[in-house]
Amino acid sequence: MSSRGSCSGGCGGCARELTLTRPEIDMLMTLAQIPFLPVCRRADEDTPVYLEEDAYSLEAYSQILRLLEKKGLVDIDYRQPLKGVAADPRWPVQGSMALTARGQQVVELLEIQGAVGDSGSDA
Q1: Which helix (H) or strand (E) holds 38?
Q2: What is the rounded distance in angstroms from the CA atom of residue 77 to the CA atom of residue 89?
Q3: In whole angstroms, what is the distance from residue 39 CA to residue 88 CA?
Q4: From its phi and psi, is residue 44 left (phi > 0), alpha (psi between -120 and 50) or beta?
Q5: Are 29 and 108 in contact (CB under 8 A)?
Q6: DSSP codes of every residue in 39-104
Q7: Which is nearest to 98 in space by CA: 54, 39, 23, 19?
Q8: CA-CA distance, 48 to 112, in Å (whole number)?
Q9: Nearest residue to 38 via CA among 73, 75, 92, 85
Q10: Alpha-carbon distance 1 to 20, whole Å?
Q11: Could you give phi then psi for residue 9, rounded to 5 degrees?
Q12: Which pLDDT does position 114 carry in this prediction?
């Protein structure tokens, strides 16, 4: 599944085609509802780990987050951990993630295009 669209304005290159998978869209919509989410990783790895939901495996969430960050839609910051989030000893480096300005624009386009709904849509 993909969502294609373009926008104008200084978003840093969103006029090119952008393809998103259903899991990527799901993660974007979660971040649209909850602006900051916890993320963690091992001290010796850069792989992000998302523990808050279980719709996908840990490995799948890691891949989703890496792709969204590479596409400039999500910012992951390990210098800004969220307060009140219990640390997991398996992943001691705590951080947070949020939509970038471009990510917010993409979410708005997805909502306008109706690409966010049941997971069986052709988004």
Answers
A1: strand 37-41
A2: 19
A3: 11
A4: alpha
A5: no
A6: EEE-TT----B--S--SS-HHHHHHHHHHHHHTTSEEEETTSPPTTPPPBTTB-EEEEEEE-HHHH
A7: 39
A8: 30
A9: 85
A10: 7
A11: 110, 175
A12: 78
Take residue 93 and report the two structure tokens written for it.
Answer: 């480096």
Structural tokens at position 58: 């840990």
What string of pLDDT tens digits covers the 123 residues of the chain?
344 444 444 444 445 688 999 999 999 999 999 999 999 999 999 999 999 999 999 999 999 999 999 999 999 999 999 998 888 899 999 999 999 999 999 999 999 887 665 544 343
Six token digits for residue 83: 């307060």
